[in-house]
Amino acid sequence: MFFNDEFETMPRPALEALQLKRLQSVLERVYANVPFYRTSLDRAGIRPSEVTCLDDLQKLPFTTKQDMRDSYPYGLFAAPMDEIVRIHASSGTTGKPTVVGYTHKDIEIWSELMARSFVSAGAHKGDIIHNAYGYGLFTGGLGAHYGAERLGASVIPISGGNTKRQIMIMQDFGSTVLTCTPSYSLFMAEEARAEGVDFRNLKLRVGIFGAEPWSEAMRGEIEEKLNLAAIDIYGLSEIMGPGVAIECIEAKQGLHIWEDHFIPEIINPETGQRVAEGERGELVITTITKQGIPLIRYRTRDITSITYEPCVCGRSHARITRMSGRSDDMLIIRGVNVFPSQIEAILVGIEGVEPHYLLVVDRAENLDTLEVQVEVDERLFSDEVKVLQKLAKRIEKEIKDMLGVTCSAKLVEPKTIQRSEGKARRVIDNRKL
Amino acid sequence: MKVEQISIFIENKSGRLAEITRILGDAGINIRALSLADTSDFGILRLIVDDVETAKTVLKERGFTVSKTEVVAVEVPDRPGGLSSLLQTLDAGQINVEYMYAFVERCGGNAVIIFRFDETDKAIDSLKGSGFTILEGERLYSL
Ligand SMILES: [Zn+2]
User: Fold this and answer.
1) Domain CATH number, residue A240
2) Which among B5, B41, B98 has CB closest to A384?
3) Which residues are bridge partners to B102 per DSSP?
4) Full-prediction pTM beyond 0.80?
């Protein structure tokens, strides 16, 4: 099932021709309207008219999050302010947020791509979409909302928070599709269990989860606990918001990135050079239809790989693999690269261990230390000390065996690890480097 | 023949024991015996209380991880070597003691020890066969 058959299944030669045409057009626009891009293209010694094939993209300079901060708030906008109909911003953990603006056309395209994403996840007109992404400056809530309406589904704009009420509404309103962060879905499952609500009695069929990295193991846990098909969605406010890429329910093997609007590249984050198909690296995206704030070769800092292999679903768009962390979330512990999502996968693999964990990195006598805190719930608990000690040892051993990192596992009381109802905080790095 | 014990997971941080005893006190629950097993990181608090279900509920409501375990309360003869003869009986029956602790009150002048065995039923049979007195829950709470 497709939302837009023509574009979703467009043969690759036609798709690539369309990409080139749109790339040339966006380059002309940013060169004419955005001083930052005029300067950076001039400095790189390339004119928009000199980009004559898709490979020429590699000659263009990158755009970084820092460039967006430096242009705060509207410096990178390519459309006049009176054509901007919406402004979003991403949370600025350090300093100012990054600001994005959308024209009417941008919102239309975003809605369509989100509607395509819903269909790809197995949703359709007639579904009741329980949208628990936060509404506000964050793009998640409104992005999913507009897509759901475009699809013609019934959307419940519940937003985040008040989990007890969320569960009541899912039950009473007969929600069939859930959209939220993966960690919040597990938080809901926990709350539901405490309330005596069984997800098997709810009508939920599909869950669309994104906005934070998660693992294949976590998918298994979510599908079991919430009794639905869990689909991974990807997006970031700088590029658009949710709906940049999504898995198809037919394969659940990689996320189709909507290539008629975005050109993806995978680069080595150290060298900036493209890596081979299938190799992991940092995802770089060029937006080729955006008007409000088009970005050329934006470094997402998300780590993934790409494949152009045909997919069973019939979509011709390339697939990126599940994000395995952020290039800046990557922890280097005694020289070993570790992504929190890898540790999460190991924890879920140990029977009964819910992924409520926290990684505390520190440095003692010039040696990095990693402490993995895991909450002990009733299924893990034993009245015998040796059983719990064995559990801690097993966590330490599996992490050592699979990642090559020595850690100490610390068992902690339930609900002592901070949970946000949005993104979960998984790492505390106390090293003073 | 068996007695229900509740076990609670606690991190080794100050005030947790006090909090648990306060929660139980507020709920009108009487703690009849207590043992704390701890390591450098965490502890397991084991309690014999006069109302197991309520104790479990109020502690769970306050976010504690709680489990119920069956243990055995055995009267130990009030004479030198009383405990030793009991342990010898277990040893002869190849029954492992996971842990044990003393009950606060005495029973007719005899001490009462709470045992957690790996094979509870076998332990009860063996002890009874050797003439030891096993206390029922009702009897224990009323001491
Ligand atoms: Zn597919």
Assistant:
1) 3.40.50.12780
2) B98
3) B113
4) no
